[in-house]
Amino acid sequence: MRRRTKNNKKTPAERARDLFSLLKALILIGILCGIPAYILLCHREVLSNLNSLHDVLTLFRSHSEQSAVLYLGAQILQIVISVLPGQVFQIAAGYIFGFLPGLLLSLIGAAAGTTVTYFLAYILGKDAMFLILGKEKSEKLVNVLNGEKAYLIVFLLYLIPGMPKDLCCYVAGVSDMKFRPFLILSVVGRTPAMCMSLLYGVMYLHHYHLGMGIIAGTAGVLLLLLLLFRKKLMALFDRFYRRITAEKQAAE
User: Fold this and answer.
1) pLDDT tens-digit profile of 207-238?
2) Is the CB of residue 60 less than 8 Å from the CB of residue 67?
3) According to the 3-state scheme, what is the secondary structure of 220-245?
4) Would you say 105 and 93 are in contact if contact means Cβ atoms under 8 Å apart?
5) Do 70 and 59 meet the contact criterion of CB atoms below 8 Å apart?
6) What would you report as the CA-atom Rg of the chain, rounded to the nearest whole angstrom?
7) Burial, 145: exposed, middle or buried (Cβ in 10 Å; 0-12, 13-18, 19+)?
8) Mean pLDDT of the chain
9) Which has the closest alpha carbon to 96: 58, 124, 144?
10) Distance CA 230, CA 14 (A)
11) For the chain, how far is it from start to end, CA to CA, in angstroms?
């Protein structure tokens, strides 16, 4: 049992530790809540402009020499700060850079943003997450990523558009999930949606309106199928996981 001073007061070391935990929590709250709130309340026009493909293209063209750096920064920030749009920038990247260069930049940006977010949470620790989400919810999310199906869940979260993945990087950073597999699964999961957005931008450049319609329709159909057959997909992955686990145990 830790020693306390008279009247059950905390020791200087305990007070310093509590103060440090509070400071870390305030930093994380500022990133997750403070910066988005400031943008929404004081610079809402920035979000309106960034949601417009025309305005994003104008931004890239007006900074043509720095356009690649701007795009990388946008990719990183939209992962770290969830209120920033991502898809419109990816469409613009297909238009400005082309498919393969745009995909390379997108993958680098996604990997960098995921790395920053994961290690930010890792450094700030669970106490910061407890203050933001509450201890019960935080522990529930962490337990999910500590479970045997964690890799499958992470992959599906990033694969299916519209799934709640904003806090996944932060929760992963305070879970037992290793960084390398989390990075690979999250980036690979993002890739199909990235490719569609980039192709849409390329076709927009060349006025391939039929192709744009096909991509939009395909994306909608795939999303619908993923949602309709998500249970069967989970069951398929479960069987695959059990098979891999059994083979690994047999080899040992």
Assistant:
1) 777 777 787 777 777 777 777 776 776 666 66
2) yes
3) HHHHHHHHHCHHHHHHHHHHHHHHHH
4) yes
5) yes
6) 22
7) buried
8) 77
9) 58
10) 47
11) 41
| Residue reference for tokens 């098979």 | 243
Identify which has the larger pLDDT, 99 or 22: 99
Dihedral of CA 227/230/233/237: which sign? positive
Sign of CA pseudo-dihedral 165, 168, 169, 170: positive
DSSP of 187-223, one letter per residue? HHHHHHHHHHHHHHHHHHHTT-HHHHHHHHHHHHHHH
* Tokens 């849409």, residue located: 200
Residue 45 has pLDDT above 60, yes or no: no
pLDDT at position 66 is 86
For range 150-154, the mean pLDDT: 83
| Residue bearing tokens 């830790």 | 2
Element (H, E) at 130: helix 126-133
What's the pLDDT at 252? 58
- Residue 1 confidence (pLDDT): 45
User: Which pLDDT does position 142 carry in this prediction?
Assistant: 85
Torsion from C-alpha of 208, 213, 214, 218, nearest 10 degrees: 140
Chain centre distance of CA 93: 19
Q: How many CB atoms lie within 10 A of CB 133?
A: 18
Query: What's the predicted TM-score (pTM) here?
Result: 0.72
Amino acid present at 215: I
CA distances from 246 to 150, 232, 240, 243, 252 (A): 17, 21, 10, 5, 10
d(CA 99, CA 183): 22
Tokens, residue 134: 């509450």
